[in-house]
Design a protein that fits this description.
Length: about 170
Amino acid sequence: MTWNDFLESVSNSALGTAIREGATTFAWIEGTHVLMVTTVLGTIAIVDLRLLGYPAHRRGAKQLIKDMLPFTWGAFVLAVITGLALFASNALNYWDSNPFRWKMIALFLAGLNMAVFHLTAYRRIAEWDDLLPPPIMARVAGITSLGLWILVAFLGRWIGFSAPMV
């Protein structure tokens, strides 16, 4: 089985067909996906702006990260689930879309940036928790994260306007 055969089978699955052919199914899933991506971007932006040196209302960076994390992860999980459902509705055409591929790369880079932040600056957060501006590594992680998540949102919209849909 080739990769294209696999993608065709995903599109022709019961789930892919139901989403693609349902009167409002795609729209409901897409709306939920957009709402979840917006929530992810918003909660990450709150943390990233703190990492860039903007003060949070009576919170150090560590407490702010701790407070935002459940909302970020919950919305991210739902965004992945709805994103996979949207992908299943037309897998081959999405896969052939450059903005879709670039979005996946941007998501990977955002995850890599988060991992680097947690392995470097976050390990020493006790030293700079209330410090403004935070150390350069935290600020670099913040601006990189913010830029990548804005790029993810931009590319997501671009997919909708550029992917050849059948």
